[in-house]
Amino acid sequence: MRFTLRPLALIGLATLATQAHAQYTLPPLPYAYDALEPVISKEIMTLHHDRHHATYVRNLNAATAELAQVFAHQGSLMDLEREIALQSAIKFNGGGHINHSLFWESLTPVSNSSFPTSGPLKKAVDSQFGSLDALKSTMTTNALGIQGSGWSWLIYHPSNKTMEVVSTADQDPVLGATPLLGIDIWEHAYYLDYLNDKASYLQHIWSGELHLLLYPLSLSAYRDVS
Ligand SMILES: *[C@@H]1O[C@H](CO)[C@@H](O)[C@H](O)[C@H]1NC(C)=O
Ligand SMILES: *[C@@H]1O[C@H](CO)[C@@H](O)[C@H](O)[C@H]1NC(C)=O
Ligand SMILES: CC(=O)N[C@H]1CO[C@H](CO)[C@@H](O)[C@@H]1O
């Protein structure tokens, strides 16, 4: 029997770092591309998911792979500059990936949707906003107030068990709170169907033709709310 001993140095730190880093993948839509018609067309869902979201995932993977290589280097100032630059790419594309993944989950055809008529979520919405309609109108005002690209969110603060409507610019994260519901206010989310008429897009989203589901991921947070 012959053994070949491989000195550790030959394995190469760069290889280790590259292997250690996981690739992110584009999740499939949880429904058909045309499932949200007529509120959101098949064309826009295809473009939004297959092009925009896919691009965030591709750029995120490229940035994290490069970061892994930078980590494997010797720690020069040039490495540090690159590391800082990559962080903003990761924030932007990673935010886009998370936020879009949640957005797909939060939309559903009306045939499959229902806002609970009792229980903790209904109680929390009523006690904090007055009614579901008042929540919708608060979110609409919030979303209309976004200048340029961004997201409007209903978030939950586990620390004091309250909800809040907030907006974020670009693909910035909601930090320190659980997002329950998010509406994409980037033009790419609605332009083909509504041109620049953001108000009409929002009105249709809330119209009852299409309901926003709360993130299944976040539902456990609501068991706390009472
Ligand atoms: C219907 O809703 C359930 C959750 O309530 C979800 O798991 C399922 O994917 C939805 N189906 C469609 C077609 O949206
Ligand atoms: C709940 O806590 C969050 C921060 O954790 C804070 O921003 C928010 O204002 C608080 N809400 C209330 C009603 O105290
Ligand atoms: C509300 C929400 O989920 N926002 C996400 C957007 O992306 C960032 C990552 O940059 C997440 O941390 C946020 O949770």
From TrEMBL:
GO terms for cellular component: mitochondrial matrix. PROSITE patterns: SOD_MN (PS00088). It is found in: Mitochondrion matrix. Its cofactor is Mn(2+). Its main location: mitochondrion. Its EC number is 1.15.1.1. Residues 23-107 form the Manganese/iron superoxide dismutase N-terminal domain. Mn(2+) binds at residues 48, 100, 184, 188. Pfam families: Sod_Fe_C (PF02777), Sod_Fe_N (PF00081). Residues 1-22 form the signal peptide. It catalyses: 2 superoxide + 2 H(+) = H2O2 + O2. Keywords: Manganese, Metal-binding, Mitochondrion, Oxidoreductase, Signal, Transit peptide. GO terms for molecular function: manganese ion binding; superoxide dismutase activity. Transmembrane segments: none annotated. Destroys superoxide anion radicals which are normally produced within the cells and which are toxic to biological systems. Destroys radicals which are normally produced within the cells and which are toxic to biological systems. Belongs to the iron/manganese superoxide dismutase family. Homotetramer. This is Superoxide dismutase. It comes from Leucosporidium creatinivorum. The lineage of its organism: Eukaryota, Fungi, Dikarya, Basidiomycota, Pucciniomycotina.
